[in-house]
TrEMBL record:
It comes from the Eukaryota. This is Patched. One of its GO terms (biological process) is negative regulation of smoothened signaling pathway. Keywords: Glycoprotein, Membrane, Transmembrane, Transmembrane helix. The chain crosses the membrane at residues 115-135. One of its GO terms (molecular function) is hedgehog family protein binding. It is found in: Membrane. Its main location: membrane. Belongs to the patched family. One of its GO terms (cellular component) is plasma membrane.
């Protein structure tokens, strides 16, 4: 039989845009609560009990998608940095498959800048010291 998601967690590519139409207009809690921003907007499809064919029109291919992260249980810096590194690793995996993406949300907007702060400060200090001694 056909499965919505395969063993690797990938939605059936041939049916993805049909599923997207149904999800965006019939699963109001999931799509609405996700605060998803999909461009172009998915095709509207409203299920009717009289519709025995279940013909769901495909949505247009997405050119932009924004889905925020909702995270809990991040109690200390180690948890947060582990999360950021794990998500970045996952993003790179999908970028290698041709799906450019960029995570967003408080951990990425606020905390990520601190991941390489020591390295950046040491580099800035080295440049400043080099400038002082080279100019002399």
């Amino acid at each position: 039989g056909h499965r919505l998601v395969d063993k690797e967690g990938i939605i059936n590519p041939k049916a993805f845009y049909n599923y997207l139409s149904a999800w965006a207009t019939n699963d109001a809690l999931a799509y609405g609560a996700s605060q998803g921003n999909l461009k172009p907007q998915p095709q509207r499809w409203i299920h009717s009990p009289e519709d025995v064919q279940l013909e769901i029109k495909k949505s247009s291919p997405l050119v932009y998608t924004q889905l925020p992260f909702y995270l809990s249980g991040l109690s200390d810096t180690d948890c947060i940095t582990t999360l950021i590194m794990s998500v970045r690793e996952l993003c790179l995996k999908y970028e290698a498959k041709g799906l450019p993406n960029f995570p967003s949300g408080i951990p990425f907007l606020f905390w990520e800048q601190y991941l390489y702060l020591r390295t950046s400060l040491l580099l800035a200090l080295a440049c400043a010291l080099a400038a002082v001694f080279v100019v002399r």
